[in-house]
Amino acid sequence: MVSEHAAQVLVASNRGPVSYTLREDGSLDARRGGGGLVSGLSAIGRDGDGASSLWVCAALGDGDREAVRRGAGEPGVRMLDIDAGVHADAYNGIANSVLWFVHHMLYQTPLEPAFDAEFRRQWAAYETYNRAFADALAAEAAPGAVVMVQDYHLCLVPGMLRELRPDLRIGHFSHTPWARRRLLPLLPDDIGAAAAARTAGRGPGGVPDPALGGHLRGVRGDVLGAGALEGTAVGVHGLGADADFLRARSQRQDVEEWLVRLRERVGAGRRTVVRVDRTELSKNIVRGLLAYRRLLTDRPEWRGQVVHIAFAYPSRQDLAVYRDYMASVRRLAEEINAEYGTDDWQPVLLELDDDFARSLAAYRMADVALVNPVRDGMNLVAKEVPVVSDEGCALVLSREAGAYEELGEDAIAVNPYDVMATADALHEALVMDPQERAERTKRLAAAATALPPTAWFLDQLAALASE
Ligand code: G6P
């Protein structure tokens, strides 16, 4: 029952649940996205209890801006038409080039970061963009409503909103890992303190789930240690895979067709090592390829016997560092194919365009799933593969992925920086006994679906209500 918690729930995130493109004839095409928040929020009002929801998000492109101007938005969604230059500075300049780097430890510190006048200018844009959200939420929220602010794009919103509306219950959910203690102080003092100030609820409490291990539990100390506001409570809510949706979707015709095509490209009797990622700097795709190359170099028995299916979808292509990273991925895959490929065997099948049905087909046929991020908040791919897998799949999983806390026991753990150890882990995964692999996959799937999106969302509401 949602109404036990609040009559109105607001979600605030940079990217919203719908995006618009302008067709040539001038009409607008609306596309709804998926993901945990969309399914989670669908629970609100479902019981006929009169609870309502509103999603506040930013207009991201020309289509979105046009939709706002025409007042064409969908019910339950309010898009903010923030000045495009301000948004670009806040999103590309601060959120993706600074906060993402701090939380994922991506800086090469001998040279970067260098917080100069340009940074200060972009930070002012980040404040303006956060202020637009806080103002819109303060205007829309009913008395006592719950507001769930999402991610590093909107770090300043809880504090700003608390000042405008002390009556609201405010949560901030980080989908990324939280910067370790020594990292947040990289930021200039005034900014580090502001970025850490979260106002989750009132009073202490917020005890994380004791079932979770040290990695996630450590978050509490890191957040509070970083100078969060008095009265901040920290909880851990590990989003699980949406089993019902994934199982149904992965049996559809388009996925079956992809299965046939992929099997043909892999070749009869060969094993597969599968990875599916957005090409984010944190995903460690390059070291994954280096490990695969090491496997072929050190263990020639695998040549001609295994194919690495690597789907690396474009992400944040406005940033040169992301474009360069994608180019490195492509280059290395080509090198491996040139070095080891034969007339009837291509060692790496790399695809750089996004196709959900093709990803599900790869999940279904994977003998090994490689998930080796240098750091990751959760990593849903690690959770989705075991749920969808046809015949069981060995999971090679980075110790630095949030999902490791829940899946570590039945995965093969790797240090994401250790290419040699990752190559050994791939070998171990490839030779795992099929019976053991199937049993582990069953346990992985159970752990991966322990907190499906609706429960994940309602749990957060309950935690906020109990503060
Ligand atoms: C990743 C992160 C999320 C984040 C999202 C933003 O998936 O795990 O924490 O919200 O990126 O992606 P975007 O494409 O909007 O920059």
Plain-language structure description:
Strand 6 (146-150), helix 5 and strand 7 form a beta-alpha-beta unit. The protein has a six-stranded parallel sheet, with helices on both faces. Strands 5-4-1-6-7 form a five-stranded parallel sheet, sandwiched between helices. A two-stranded antiparallel ribbon has the order 2-3. The protein has two domains: 7-239 and 453-466, Glycogen Phosphorylase B (Rossmann fold, 3-Layer(aba) Sandwich), CATH 3.40.50; 243-448, 3-Layer(aba) Sandwich (Rossmann fold). It is built from 17 helices and 13 strands. It is globular and about 65 Å long. The protein has helices at 36-41, 62-70, 84-104, 117-140, 157-164, 189-196, 214-225, 243-249, 253-266, 285-298, 320-340, 356-365, 380-388, 404-407, 419-430, 434-448, 453-465, and strands at 8-13, 18-22, 28-32, 52-58, 77-80, 146-150, 169-173, 271-278, 306-313, 348-351, 368-371, 394-398, 412-414. 6-O-phosphono-alpha-D-glucopyranose is lined by residues 14-15, 151, 175-176, 315-316, 377.
Put the structure in a nutshell.
With 467 residues, the protein is of the alpha/beta class.
Helical segment count: 17
Protein structure class: alpha/beta
Largest sheet report: 6 strands, parallel
Proportion of residues in helical segments = 40-55%
Number of domains: 2
Q: What topology, given as strand order, has the largest sheet?
A: 10-9-8-11-12-13
User: What small molecules does this complex bind?
Assistant: 6-O-phosphono-alpha-D-glucopyranose
Let me know the average pLDDT: 91
Mass-distribution shape: globular
CATH architecture of the largest domain: 3-Layer(aba) Sandwich
CATH topology of the largest domain: Rossmann fold
Report the radius of gyration as a whole number of Å.
Answer: 23 Å
Order of helices and strands: EEEHEHEHHEHEHHHHEHEHEHEHEHEHHH
Q: Please report the first level of CATH classification, the CATH class of the largest domain.
A: Alpha Beta
Query: Which consecutive residue ranges, at least 5 long each, have pLDDT under 50?
Result: 198-217
Total beta strands:
13
CATH superfamily of the largest domain: Glycogen Phosphorylase B
N→C terminal distance: 18 Å
- Percent in strands: 5-15%
